[in-house]
Amino acid sequence: MCLGIPMQIKSIEGFTANCEAKGIHRDVSLFMLQHEECRVDDYVVVHVGYAIQKITPHEARSAWELSDQMLADGQA
Question: What confidence tens digit (pLDDT) does each residue in 37-50 have?
């Protein structure tokens, strides 16, 4: 099983983006998305330090809500 976390791009320098999710900031490699145009405020799915997919703000919110619900229910 692989776990991808939705994060919002806050800044970009080369192939490295500073991303944020729920107040946590991480430097994330954009190398695997070099075929796509990534911009500040875009949302990406992050897995082991790499952005692996761009997603919409709605998809990010839905993933965060599901994760919050699982944690609240004690299933995570």
Answer: 999 999 999 999 99
Q: Radius of gyration over alpha carbons of the chain, in Å?
A: 12
Q: Could you give the CA distance from residue 65 to residue 71 in angstroms, rounded to a whole number?
A: 10
Q: What is the pLDDT of residue 28?
A: 98
What's the whole-model pTM score? 0.89
Distance CA 65, CA 60 (A): 9
Q: Look up residue 40 and give its two tokens.
A: 């500040």
> 64: which residues sit within 8 A by CB, 6+ positions away?
6, 21, 22
The domains found in the chain, sorted by start residue, are 5-72 (2.30.30.140)
Distance from chain centroid for Cα 25: 10
